[in-house]
């Protein structure tokens, strides 16, 4: 029972740390007002990396041994652990899915940033790709995510026009 209590304390500490990561990942991001769409891709790549690292740690042999010992002891701390494990898996899948879809837009980010204000040739393809993301993505098809993306694209278009005016 002494070993079980120590292992339960370890799992409680892990649970607290994982909850903190999940809470921080859900907080509203603070970004500059003129940030472009590349920042959205970078955000999700960073988030994907964080959650994949966390998943790798959870699936490590050390953690699995501790969890199996607690399962044999029928510990009550495992219910919370399983819920967190599920939440992390969902968050990692969301980040992976969003990165995959945002990469389809990546080819537009360069031309959008470097084009002249007559960037109309890129807009129809960009809008079609965004529509495809909205219709097929399991996670990125919310009005909140789409609004954020459109805002960043608009920011990039405004920055491109400003640069053109300053240089011209």
TrEMBL record:
<dbReference type="GO" id="GO:0007018">
    <property type="term" value="P:microtubule-based movement"/>
</dbReference>
<protein>
    <submittedName>
        <fullName>DYH5 protein</fullName>
    </submittedName>
</protein>
<dbReference type="Pfam" id="PF08385">
    <property type="entry name" value="DHC_N1"/>
</dbReference>
<dbReference type="GO" id="GO:0005858">
    <property type="term" value="C:axonemal dynein complex"/>
</dbReference>
<dbReference type="InterPro" id="IPR013594">
    <property type="entry name" value="Dynein_heavy_tail"/>
</dbReference>
<feature type="domain" description="Dynein heavy chain tail">
    <location>
        <begin position="5"/>
        <end position="166"/>
    </location>
</feature>
<dbReference type="GO" id="GO:0045505">
    <property type="term" value="F:dynein intermediate chain binding"/>
</dbReference>
<dbReference type="GO" id="GO:0051959">
    <property type="term" value="F:dynein light intermediate chain binding"/>
</dbReference>
<dbReference type="InterPro" id="IPR026983">
    <property type="entry name" value="DHC"/>
</dbReference>
């Amino acid at each position: 029972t002494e070993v079980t209590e120590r292992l339960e304390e370890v799992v409680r500490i892990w649970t607290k740390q994982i909850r903190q990561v999940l809470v921080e990942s859900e907080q509203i991001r603070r970004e500059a007002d003129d940030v472009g769409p590349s920042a959205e891709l970078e955000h999700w790549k960073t988030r994907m990396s964080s959650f994949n690292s966390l998943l790798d740690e959870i699936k490590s042999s050390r953690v699995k041994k501790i969890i199996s010992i607690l399962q044999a002891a029928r510990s009550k701390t495992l219910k919370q652990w399983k819920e967190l494990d599920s939440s992390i898996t969902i968050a990692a899948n969301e980040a992976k899915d969003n990165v995959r879809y945002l990469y389809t837009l990546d080819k537009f980010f360069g031309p959008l940033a470097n084009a002249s204000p007559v960037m109309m040739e890129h807009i129809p393809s960009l809008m079609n790709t965004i529509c495809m993301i909205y219709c097929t993505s399991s996670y990125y098809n919310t009005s909140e995510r789409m609004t954020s993306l459109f805002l960043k694209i608009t920011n990039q278009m405004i920055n491109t026009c400003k640069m053109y005016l300053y240089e011209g």
